[in-house]
Amino acid sequence: MRQTLYLKNAPKIPRSNSEFIKELLKTINKNTNTDVPRPQSTLSSSKDEKPLTFLDENYKIVSITRPRNLQGQCFIGFSDAAHAAHFCHTFKDKLFLRGRSVVIETAKHDAYWFIAQQSPTVYRRLHKHLSMKKDPKTLLQLRNKRIRRRLRCRLRKKGLGETAIQQVLERLATSQLSAGNQKSVLPAKDGSSQATSMAPGAAASAKTTPAVQHQGNNTKKKVVDVGSNPPNKVLLVQGLPEGITEQQLAERFASDKLVQVRFVQVRQLAFVEYEDIQSASKVVERLGHSQNFNDTTAIIGYAKR
């Protein structure tokens, strides 16, 4: 068992991380100190080992983190796997926070500070990799490398030889170095290469462009007919306006059994998932099959299984 536990179905409030940690620690141990110490540093390049600071001495809790993009979820790090197993056994199906039953599971990966404690060499490599990703120049190099790798794969599927592929990649590299007027080289249907005036990123994502329906000078995205789909615990919301956020969708489709909202910005649609089919059906009965978002009518239906 790992020394990091994953908690889900926790309340989204309080929004302040420090207040959330205080409330969680007070629920776990009523005698715990209300002053939350500074969290364990995870990205320090120092090789000196520092003693761990415990948030709770009884269960040897070292860190509590709540990611911004995972609402109602958090991670608890312990000093070792034995204390994590003891905590999981003690509070399994018994931990309630603001009236909600918090689900406790073992995390898929350990925390960075634990990796640093067990294997300093691996941790230094990880720290170097994360530091490089913050450099804009390095990010651009990684992006161009990813574009070339995907383009090479596409050209191989089209049956081009290695010599022809290398020529296309050389033209792409030349176009990426040109300032202001970047061009991407794509293979023609007859196997030869041709230059187009799209950005380098468009070459890799040309196949993922959503289908559009041309009506005069206006372009309108296709709406998939979901009227014949059987009831499902996942709802499909299509035709959303630009500027809509997942928070606004979560408020509109609010329910006690709401699991998550996945907003696909490229296609202006969202998937709203509930715990069971009955909860999703109640929301459809309450909202109907269409809703108005910023003077735009969105279509609501059941997603395809």
From TrEMBL:
<feature type="domain" description="RRM">
    <location>
        <begin position="233"/>
        <end position="305"/>
    </location>
</feature>
<feature type="region of interest" description="Disordered">
    <location>
        <begin position="183"/>
        <end position="217"/>
    </location>
</feature>
<feature type="compositionally biased region" description="Low complexity">
    <location>
        <begin position="193"/>
        <end position="211"/>
    </location>
</feature>
<dbReference type="GO" id="GO:0003723">
    <property type="term" value="F:RNA binding"/>
</dbReference>
<dbReference type="InterPro" id="IPR035979">
    <property type="entry name" value="RBD_domain_sf"/>
</dbReference>
<dbReference type="Pfam" id="PF00076">
    <property type="entry name" value="RRM_1"/>
</dbReference>
<dbReference type="InterPro" id="IPR012677">
    <property type="entry name" value="Nucleotide-bd_a/b_plait_sf"/>
</dbReference>
<dbReference type="InterPro" id="IPR000504">
    <property type="entry name" value="RRM_dom"/>
</dbReference>
<keyword id="KW-0694">RNA-binding</keyword>
<protein>
    <recommendedName>
        <fullName>RRM domain-containing protein</fullName>
    </recommendedName>
</protein>
